[in-house]
C-alpha cells in the first residue's frame, strides 16, 4: 500500500498557442512527407507561438488557469517553479517574469532545466518543499517555445517540436489524494546527444556561432530513441514499485509526448493497455517540459481523471534526464 502523500494537485491549466503547423506545411519546407512523420512519430500537427509573445506569456496564461481551478490567488503562492529550456532571456529565470505578470509577491521564483523531464523534476521539488512544511502553495509550470530554437531546414528535428505551457498548483495533501511517489534521474555522459550548443558561455553569440547554427536544437535521434525506450520503461516501473502500485491500479498513464512508438513501448513494459494511455501528441508534437502538464490538464477536463483515480506520469529528455510520478486525484 502506498505511503501517505505529502502534497496534492489542487488545480491545473494549460496554454496552447493558436498558430498551427501541419505535416503538409512541413512538406513545403523540407524533404519530408506527412506519411513519414505520422508513421515514425505519430505527430500530425504542432502549435507555434505568435510573434511578440514569449515562454513567460504561455506560462502566465497556464498559471492563471491553474490558480483559478485551484480557487487560489497569486498572493497565496509561496513558490513558482518554471521548467523550461527555452526561457525568455539568458537570465533571470522565466519564473520571475511569471511572478511579475500574475503578482505573486510572496513567492520565491526559479527555473528548472531538465528538458522534457523538467516538469516532473519541478513536481518532485514542490513535493519536497511542501513535505518539509517550508511551503504551502507551489505553482509548477512546464513551458516552452521550442519553435524559436528549431532549425526549420533540418528535417531530423523540425518535424518534432511544438510550443505550449501547462501548470499545476500544489498544496498539502488532504489525506488520501496526492503524490504517491516521485523519482528523478540523469546521465550526463549522454549530454551531447540532444542539446543546443549556443548561446551559453561555451559558445557565446557571434557571427560564427550563428553561421554554425549553434542557436538550434541538435539531436542524435536514433540514439535518443533507444535511450528513451529504456529510461521511460525503467522510470515507470520504478515509480509503480515505489508507490506500491500494480499496473491494474493505474487508471491513466500520462507519458511525455515525444514519439508514439516510445509511448507504446513504455505502455507495453508496464502491461498497461493503450486505452489507459493519454496521447495528444498528434495535435501538439513534442512540447518538451510542457507536454505532461498540458496532457494532465486535458485529461482532467475530458473527465479521464476523476476523484480517487491514479495517474502515472513518466518523462525522458535532454541531459539525458528522466523522471516519473504517481498521483491519486
Ligand atoms: N522526413 C523524412 N525522412 C527523414 C526525416 C523526415 N522528417 N527525418 C529523418 N529522416 C530520414 C533519415 O535521414 C534517415 O535516412 P537515411 O536512412 O537515408 O539515413 C531515415 O529517415 C531514418 O532515420 P532515423 O533517424 O533512423 O529514423 P527514426 O525511425 O529513428 O525516427 C526520430 C527519427 C523520429 C527522430 C526518432 O529517432 C525519435 O523520435 N527519436 C527520439 C526523439 C526524442 O524523443 N527526443 C526526446 C526528447 S526532446 C527534448 O528533450 C527537447
Could you please describe the fold and organization of this structure?
The protein starts with 6 loop residues before the first strand and ends with a strand. The strands form four sheets. Strands 1-7-6-4-5 form a five-stranded mixed β-sheet, sandwiched between helices. It has a four-stranded mixed β-sheet with strand order 8-13-12-11, with helices on both faces. The radius of gyration is 19 Å and the shape is globular. Helix content is 33%, strand content 24%. The chain folds into two domains: 7-175, Thiolase/Chalcone synthase (Peroxisomal Thiolase, Chain A, domain 1, 3-Layer(aba) Sandwich); 180-328, Peroxisomal Thiolase, Chain A, domain 1 (3-Layer(aba) Sandwich). The model has no long low-confidence stretch (mean pLDDT 96). It contains eleven helices and 13 strands. The chain is of the alpha/beta class. α3 (55-70) packs across α4. It has helices at 23-27, 34-41, 55-70, 94-102, 118-131, 155-158, 207-211, 221-243, 260-270, 281-284, 291-301, and strands spanning 7-15, 19-22, 45-48, 79-83, 108-112, 138-145, 163-172, 178-186, 194-195, 218-219, 252-255, 310-317, 321-328. Bound molecules: acetyl coenzyme *A. Acetyl coenzyme *A binds at residues 32, 36-37, 40-41, 115-116, 155-156, 159, 194, 221-222, 224-225, 228, 258-259, 262, 286, 288, 317-318.
- Number of contiguous helices: 11
Q: Encode the helix/strand succession as letters.
A: EEHHEHEHEHEHEEEHEHEHHHEE
User: Oligomeric form of this entry?
Assistant: single chain
| Corresponding CATH superfamily of the largest domain | Thiolase/Chalcone synthase
Q: Examine the secondary-structure arrangement and name the CATH architecture of the largest domain.
A: 3-Layer(aba) Sandwich
Cα-to-Cα separation, first versus last residue: 16 Å
CATH topology description of the largest domain: Peroxisomal Thiolase, Chain A, domain 1
Class of the largest domain in CATH? Alpha Beta
* Poorly predicted residue ranges: none
Count up the domains.
Answer: 2
Residue-averaged pLDDT = 96
